[in-house]
Amino acid sequence: MLMRKIYIAGNWKMNKGLQETKNFLETVIPELNKLKLENVIPLIAPAYPFLEEALKGSYGSCMQVSAQDVSVHSEGAYTGEVSAGMLASLGLKYCIVGHSERRQYHNETDATVNAKILKLFENHITPLVCIGETLQQREEGKTENVILSQLSGCLKNIKLLSGEEIILAYEPVWAIGTGKTATPSQAQEVHNLIRNWLKSNYSDKVAEKLSLLYGGSIKPGNLQELLDCEDIDGGLIGGASLKEEDFLEMVQIGRKSKGQEC
């Protein structure tokens, strides 16, 4: 049976300072080191100032570290921006792009996300690309059109050969930070739509190997039923990933799902 990588990815957003980051890693890393995780990849995305500390604190473990965003520019007079080259110089291997909060508060478009993906590829960093519809779009029956449009725009001129060069996360905007979660059937329907689009626009191989995450008010209590869905390969997790015990519990849930070693 094909086993895609399962990601338990914590997006910390603008939370946790330096000492809190250290404390989290000092608690979590020893527990992760006790586990045989096989295809399960724990990942955290701290704020920019603490990426280096997170990399140091997780060195030698299975924990991966991601940035939350990246600039479309390589260098120059762009105050406050951080380039993909700068992230690569830290040794970073992952970066989130296209999160709905970036789209909402910073007016980022699919074209912006596409440009960021290209910069990350140039620097051998795996993009974790977020797509998803608003509540209004869902209620108007536009979910499919919105998702397909975002896929086409974000992945324009992006070459994928193995399916492991990139991660996609479906995050219905109406379920982010609201306490609402898409039902497993709602989430699976969109994930299946995405996987079929990948088959049509890339190949069966890419579609079968590419990890599709769900994001939107995930917590230990609802992760299992989402992972039980055929096309959901992990979670992009906000608030619940900030608590050491919840993060570890979700890693364990991922570990026991989809035929992983348990």
Automatic annotation (TrEMBL):
Q: What CDD domains does the annotation carry?
A: TIM
**Per UniProt, what is one GO molecular function of this protein?**
triose-phosphate isomerase activity
Protein keywords = Cytoplasm, Gluconeogenesis, Glycolysis, Isomerase
Pathway noted in the entry: Carbohydrate biosynthesis; gluconeogenesis; Carbohydrate degradation; glycolysis; D-glyceraldehyde 3-phosphate from glycerone phosphate: step 1/1
Q: Where in the cell is it found?
A: Cytoplasm
Please list the reactions this protein catalyses: D-glyceraldehyde 3-phosphate = dihydroxyacetone phosphate
Which Gene3D superfamilies does the entry link to? Aldolase class I
InterPro entries linked: Aldolase_TIM (IPR013785), TIM_sf (IPR035990), TrioseP_Isoase_bac/euk (IPR022896), Triosephosphate_isomerase (IPR000652), Triosephosphate_isomerase_AS (IPR020861)
Tell me if Cytoplasm is a UniProt keyword of this record.
Answer: yes
Binding sites annotated in the UniProt record for substrate: 11-13, 177, 217, 238-239
Q: Name one Pfam family in it.
A: TIM
- This entry's Enzyme Commission designation comes to 5.3.1.1
Function of the protein:
Involved in the gluconeogenesis. Catalyzes stereospecifically the conversion of dihydroxyacetone phosphate (DHAP) to D-glyceraldehyde-3-phosphate (G3P).
HAMAP family referenced in this protein's UniProt entry, alphabetically = TIM_B
Q: So what family is this one in?
A: Belongs to the triosephosphate isomerase family.
In Swiss-Prot or TrEMBL terms, this protein is called: Triosephosphate isomerase
Organism listed in the record: Cloacimonas acidaminovorans (strain Evry)
Lineage at the top is: Bacteria, Pseudomonadati, Candidatus Cloacimonadota, Candidatus Cloacimonadia, Candidatus Cloacimonadales
